[in-house]
Amino acid sequence: MPALPTAILFRDVSILDSTGADPYPGDVLVENDRIVAVGAVDPAQARDARVIEGRGRTLMSGLCDAHTHFSWNNSADLDGLGTMPVEEHLLFCLESARTYIDSGYTMCLGAASAKDRLDVVCRDAINAGRVPGPRYLANGPEIAVTGGALIKSITKFADGPEGMRKAVRELIEFGVDQIKLSMTGEEITGTQRAEDTYFSDEEVAAAVTEAHRRGKRVCAHARSAESVKMCVRHGVDIIYHASFTDAEGMDLLEANKHWVFVAPGLNWLIATLYEAESFGFPQEAAEAVGYKKELDTAIAGLREMHRRGIKVLPGGDYGFAWTPHGTYARDLAHFVELLGFTPMEAIIAATAWGGEIMLRPDELGKVQPGYLADLLLIDGNPLADITILQDRTKINYIMKDGRFHKEATDVAAPTPPNPGNIDRNQSAPAQA
Ligand SMILES: [Zn+2]
């Protein structure tokens, strides 16, 4: 393995720092795993740095997906999540992790794992540097009550407050970072309605209390109006979907917006409604079971959440046949096109708020001195065209922890050369 440079200077970049400031030209100096200087960098400080010539390209934080499933295996058959043998499944998860970071995602929050330890094993392997992947907060199988599972074969069943406590304790013993409650239905199952709520207040309260007692957060699949309110009342930290949030739920979310996150998984709804036909779920069928109504209701609600300053984050339940891994940044375009976010707001939601949902707001998600060097060098301006973040060829460099995961070799030669320190390690293999 080649020796790693201790300092890297991104010279002449357009700095999109995720503070909300307009991008500005300058340099960014990385030493070891941290950003140490941004804007006007003292040449003496950067004297020994390897130089990456930005030529005006955009330097920004790596992205966050707030609703990640490494173990969703691109299948059109939901039960395939349960029947895939664990050996093949782990391999698939490792490939998903790599696809995330290949796509510019350096932060992912696990939203459920199809088998007990897939997520935690991936997280630990990434953290140990054995495989490439984003920073990851691992989940376990989602908890559902009897009769309330979306996919039985990947569910951990629990009933009653005591059952919830035991399930949470068992998942914590596996090593998860957060707990997932599957509180409502999902129309594609054919039997579980999105507006059904399966958990009781006592069960949600018990699960959250037990998780929080152990310093773990709780996230929830919560499509119905009642489930959203239960989540807020009982302190569920991250609410997924929230499609049918009613006026009371909206007020509750707003009153608690200093701690609660909403991650709608919007691309799932859109793709399930409009793009699943070749996988046996045509638009007429999706509309017939209510996905059009759910999408329209969700968009109206999410726009209102955005207007009220409730934190809504991208992250889209990727990993089904019609929402395949690697298409993650579609969420940002949906936020702009459908939810009224400006491109800057969508990027802040995917970066600075990503740092918040990863519980490291002072270290992740911004291009600021002292932050960890998780950086993307983008060939283009994502504020002018948010969809370029979906094009991996435009993500020329990907850095995590100050180490390059990807170094572009297919971009134009730097101008003008400064012999001695220009990209002198260009030929070094990408570091995982
Ligand atoms: Zn999900």
TrEMBL record:
CDD domains: Met_dep_hydrolase_A (cd01299). Signal peptide: none annotated. Residues 59-403 form the Amidohydrolase-related domain. Residues 409-432 are annotated as: Disordered. Residues 423-432 have a biased composition (Polar residues). Pfam families: Amidohydro_1. It comes from the Bacteria. This is Amidohydrolase family protein. It comes from Nonomuraea marmarensis.
